[in-house]
Amino acid sequence: MNAFDPLSPNWGRIDQLAIAGPAEQRGEVLVLPTSAGPLTVSLHAFGARLRFGERSTGDYGLLVDEPVAAPLTVAVDTGVTEVSAAGFTLRIEHRPFAFELRRGDKRVQSSPTDAHFVRRFRLPPVARLEDGWFMSLELDTGEPVYGLGEKWGRLDKRGQLIESYNRDALGVNGEASYKNTPFAWSPAGWGLLVHTPAPVTHGVGFAPWSQRAYGLYVEEPQLDLFLFAGTDGAEIIGHYTELTGRAPVPPLWSLGVILSKAYYVDAEELLDTARQVREREMPCDVITLDGRAWLDTDTRFAFEWDAARYPQPKQVLDELKALNFKVCVWEYPLVSVQHPLFDEMAAKGWLLTDSETGAAYRYQWDSEPFGDVLTPLPISGLVDFTHPDAYAFWRDRHQSLFEVGVDMIKADFGEQVEDDTIQAANGDRGRQLHNAYTLLYNRCVYEAAERYCGSGAFLFSRSSWTGCQRYPSQWGGDPQADWGGLAASLRGGLSWGLSGAPFYATDVGGFYGDQRDAVLYLRWAQAAVFSAHMRLHGIGQREPWSYTHETFGAAAAAAAMQALQLRYRLLPYLQEVVRQASATGLPCQRAMALAFPQERAAWGFEEQFMFGDKMLVAPCLRADGEVEVYLPRGQWRRFPDRQPFAGGRSYHLALALEEYAVFVREGDRVPLGPDVLHTEALGGRVKVERYWCAGDDTSNAGS
């Protein structure tokens, strides 16, 4: 069978798939025999589904429901089969297999036109490989492609080789990322989803493969491909999230500021920080106990507080509650071999096993990436979420945490199922389980919050796969604390939003390599005001006053406090945005290609975005305060000073520390709420105090 080298494929040595016999119609699907197993075809309201081969992995619930297929009309001619339904026509050529999907008289997608001297297709339209499948699709000249999860580089994936495989990326500087999905779309009017938990490699106009084709390498015995048709990105994301699910509206308190640090060393430091936040009148809703803050590192994770530092955890949490804080605690899906829970779960078959020994697999951490920055982690077992009893046990053990006063779980890690000797109760191993593991983990923890958290279900997860958007929310991992880390974090969030996930947060100030740069911290905080969730986090303090020793520290700290205050005044608007995101699948932060599909000049400005329907945000990514912003056609007003700007062009601005490059279309208005220090002061619902109007008539607007 065909071998495949993703770095230097030899296309001429790969056998191209062919149809091998007559088609058979079975209800609303058509089955065609091929040189590598059956091809099952169906047409739907959104487009087409093509399934090559038979599924070998478990059903992880990536789809919320199986889509309803439309009744087919089938026509067969020499060497061609054509099926029609729901306004679509799918033409299949037999030798070699090639296809074209049309909606009416418009081509949606097809096999590529990239040809060779001696054969029609230089790349195989479809090929069965030793360890999976290859498929190629057409890309028009200059056509951009978006999606494919949280990626730190250009939003337009054209020219890139992208791997859909969750990794502990250790930052935001490479291709590896924590959150992936093999879903992509183009403003040309098509989208695709590879329905699989397996790794997928995408050569998106990647020149070593083809600069004019999109190649898919799927490491699974079945290639299950959805093709979507839509007038723009919003419609295509709508199709995708209708299939894979949409996020519920998060609780109001989660829209406030979330304060964190790696890490508060004991209860005294935690409570002292919380008291300072209130004494200094810093707006904040949630305070976080990171992994080392509340757990014994050597014996974690077993849902137990470190008794040496927290002999009476409820007393500590009660004091935080009296200060009107919600409480977030960290977890990961591993159990230390030094805790009795490891042996208990291993005896019941509730940990992933080593297929060679049958014993519980023992995960050994590679300490090299962490050096002396983080405490060495213990050898641990991995929870087997495919085992129904293990899943229920892990879910229900959260009850004690919520009963003592926890409101939110930070579900960290989940990328550790890599070794192909790792076996799950459902029979899947290593790479076949790897991506789906994070979906099961997030689902389990979110269901625990739904069952047991009285203040509303919400979590922060780091690792995600197709369908994880149903369990809000996600944060962006561990960025470097510099200007490049800020820019990459923004692109990662926007890319995740272009992939059908509406809610995201970054580590304001950066996670590692902190230089106590007050201006960087300020600009990061100002950008985060206009995101679904806002978390201040990193190695070291992240309160604004902790940066005041620098030359510009006092002024920057004051401006950062103003940004936090603005965040709370914007809560009425933010709640509108998250409700719309929940209903439609659209992200809160919308890249320009998504927000302005008819204005291609805007698409190249990849660090600016629309925050909901009304606010255009161009974050400041330079220490000198310079910003270039493109305003789409129309008239705009700068927020909050109402300075007028004509659209259809770009502007170079120099921002003072307290200034933003935020704009609202002429005639729009933004609801604003009162100044509060936490959402408890709102009595459980947002209050509109006034409207900010983008225009000269401000008689009913307030200031």
Automatic annotation (TrEMBL):
Report which residue ranges the record marks as coiled coil: none
Pfam families linked to this entry: Gal_mutarotas_2 (PF13802), Glyco_hydro_31_2nd (PF01055), Glyco_hydro_31_3rd (PF21365)
Where is the Glycoside hydrolase family 31 N-terminal domain positioned along the sequence? Answer: 59-201
The name under which this protein is listed is Alpha-xylosidase
Q: Alphabetically, which GO biological process terms does the record hold?
A: carbohydrate metabolic process
> What family does this belong to?
Belongs to the glycosyl hydrolase 31 family.
Any keyword Transcription?
no
Per UniProt, residues of the Glycosyl hydrolase family 31 C-terminal domain are: 585-667
Q: Which GO MF term does the entry hold, naming one?
A: carbohydrate binding
* InterPro entries cross-referenced by the UniProt entry: Gal_mutarotase_sf_dom (IPR011013), GH (IPR017853), Glyco_hydro_31_C (IPR048395), Glyco_hydro_31_N_dom (IPR025887), Glyco_hydro_31_TIM (IPR000322), Glyco_hydro_b (IPR013780), Glycosyl_Hydrolase_31 (IPR051816)
Source species, domain of life? Bacteria
* Keywords from the UniProt entry: Glycosidase, Hydrolase
Domain named Glycoside hydrolase family 31 TIM barrel: which ranges? 248-574
Is rRNA processing tagged as a keyword? no
